[in-house]
Amino acid sequence: MTLGKLAVLLTAVALAATGQLVLKHGMVEAQDTSRGSDRSLLLAAASSPWIIGGLMIFAASAVAWLLTLARIPLSVAYPFNALGYVAILLASALVLHERTNLWMWLGTLLVGAGLVLIVVMAPASSASPVTPTHAQEKAATISAADAQTALEPGSTPLPPRRAR
Predict the structure, then answer these.
(1) Coil, strand, or helix at residue 21?
(2) I need a surface site. Which of 68, 81, 131, 144 has the fewest CB within 10 A?
(3) Are 15 and 61 in contact (CB under 8 A)?
(4) What is the rounded CA–CA span in Å between residue 37 and residue 40?
(5) Which pLDDT does position 157 carry in this prediction?
(6) On the CB side of 124, how many CA atoms lie within 13 Å of its CA?
(7) Rounded to an integer, what distance in angstroms lies between the CA atom of residue 136 and that of residue 156?
(8) Any idea of the CA torsion for 42, 86, 62, 9, to the nearest 10 degrees?
(9) Cα dihedral across residues 38, 42, 44, 47: positive or negative
(10) How much is the pTM?
(11) Residue 137: pLDDT above 70?
(12) What's the rounded Cα separation, in Å, for the pair 5 and 108?
């Protein structure tokens, strides 16, 4: 995995965790607003700049995640979401002042250790398994050309098919 690919992956995870924190803050604020003004929680949340901002952060996270999926095998990329668990637990304790306990930290530590194992033990791959090789593309082109020459007189040729 190149440094650029890792940077996009970590950006996706960081944006997702940040989006969660912003949405949580927005929902706490929306709940307070709805209680004090007899507005529904849904309307208070829909008009909250924190909720709108959190959703925009999630949209940016989704774009970064799609870029990641185009470049890194899912079996390697997805475990990196565990970093989000660590970041959210830490930020919820420090920023949102939520209570945590030893078991939460121990569980998060085990998830982080699992991530390290997956990254260290992941098989090296030079190309994504979904990408067809040059030989497969050439074979598909030859097959399409052979199909064109085998047409009966008066028949209409079909457009060439793309390799799967």
Answers:
(1) helix
(2) 131
(3) yes
(4) 9
(5) 59
(6) 2
(7) 26
(8) 170
(9) negative
(10) 0.67
(11) no
(12) 25
